[in-house]
Amino acid sequence: MISIIIATHNRVDEITNSLTLMKINNIFDNVKSRIILVFDGNILNELQYDKLLKNNPCGLPIIISQNREHIGQNKARNIGIEISKQDNPQYICFLDDDATIDKGYELRNIINIMDSSEKIVAIGLQSVIKQSGNDQYYSKYNKQKGIFPVEIICLAGAIIKSNVVYKFDRFFFPENIFYGSDEWALVMRVRQLGYQTYATNLCRVIHRLESKGRNAKIRYNLQYAHSFMWTLLPKKILIVLIFRPASKSQ
Q1: DSSP class of residue 52?
Q2: Of the spans 26-30, 98-102, 118-122, 126-130, which averages the highest pLDDT?
Q3: How crowded is the C-beta side of 13, counted as CA atoms within 13 Å?
Q4: What's this model's pTM, rounded to 2 decimal places?
């Protein structure tokens, strides 16, 4: 089984569109799945709730968690992880609320690869920006085929073995930073256990980079730079940033 965790802030329409499209494209065929939606900083109204649960755009079981307080991506994803434990899934898939696994790419293909190797515990799915058609994170690996090692995993779409995630009380950290440390935290956790991080072009997501008025290219550049800043900064500087109180504005 695989739990699919989507942390979001007030993007019911975007999530509905993504889940509907993935159902049409048979993305979840042959994989027992459950969707976990964590709404960070907003409570759904009756119409929105019905749109996701009563009308169910994906045909899969859906669990909804709502937080009136804006808690940030790390804590929201950690809440999703705790919820997933009730199903004891073998895998956890993280998707952005504006990302869709592309037609012709099934989760089953990646799960089969991960089942076949104890060394492969975390795989980032190739993330292609819809507006430009460019690879979001893995362009320097364009000559690589299949599964290949990478320095950082793009959380627009990623699959991790649950026994790795569950080893930590808080997989994504620090929870007091609202944006930008999640991909760095994933890599640190996986490597802390002695594993390599991987990516693949055997399965990809289309990332729409919906940003409510922000230019998609600017958002892409900021996101890319921010994540690599966390990866490359010296440990002493990281310690200072980790314990610095978070601002609730994004």
Answers
A1: I
A2: 118-122
A3: 2
A4: 0.85
